[in-house]
Structure of D-inositol 3-phosphate glycosyltransferase:
Amino acid sequence: MPSPSCRIAHVTEAMGGGIVTVIASIARRQAAEGANVEVHYLRRPETPDATSLERQFPAGTRLVEYASGSRAASLLQLALAIRGRLRRGDVDYVHAHSSIAGALARLAVPLGRRGRRVFYSPHGWAFLRLDLPVWARRGFILVEKILARGPATVVLTSRSEYDYGIHQVSPRRSALIQTGVDPGEVTDAAPEQRTGRRLRVATIARICHQKAPWRFAEVARQLGTEAEFRWIGGGPDEDRERWIGDAPVEVTGWLSPVELRHELADVDVFLFPTLWEGMPMALMQAQAHGIPSVVSDTVGNRDAVRHGISGYVCADDAELIRRTRELLSDATLRQRMSDAARVWAHRSLTDEGVGRQTLDIYAGATA
């Protein structure tokens, strides 16, 4: 069992969207177990401002932003800082989040027993990125395989991500944890069925290639007379124009956690047609709010939704449209899947045990 006052440094160069939520969730649960937590990160366009960021983390969390001009210089500064803190004994464990941070942490820390104090969660394997050419994806697999032979532990957040990693990467050390929403976020009652108002279909995501906004836009074009469509999140104007264009989709921009909860209370169907994931926090939030979900069949999505019970896992674009229409046209089906989603979230999509899980993994790797 780890020391009750162990010191943990979470590290990421991708401080935005679901990464913020999952790191904050783990940090909060670890702090509740008595750990001292700090977070080292690079800012992205979607990174919350300093005040908003502080509100998401437990009191006493040390937040350190690295900005040395260029991105490359900031990454180097981040790597050297983590290496120095671990070598001096300022922290006991380093947990890197995302592929680049994972590579930096594993390369920066000396091998041997000290290297066993490093842990890495990809939150979506980089070699699954369909926006990259085949040669680049193969290169990511090779890099992951090489680094996986080192002393660090790869910590995965969904069963399909874990199985994929074991098959493709074969890490020397690996573990599976259950991330999720706070149990208090799981609604006790199904959302009220809309009467006299249009039904609403929504997603939560950055407007980027990974989230397949053109798929969401096409469903909106096909079903725009049956419901209103909202994209909760934001992205560059050129990406919005290229992938959503004139589709009947309202883009809200980024919302605070409180605003997001209010927004989800008015959603009837959650449409999440992404190309790759780890364990999507947005989808777990939707299930916790009792929102039937229509999702693409990819890593993470198939773990967060029970096909035919709390939503539908779809094989192609045509099925995304068909299943969304099916839910919009059948209030009884929506209600049944809403009830099932909340039960599923209570059982399998909360973060209640992630603090103890991660601390036990850290201690076991360094025993």
Summary: Residues 7-179+351-366 form a domain with the Rossmann fold fold (CATH 3.40.50.2000).
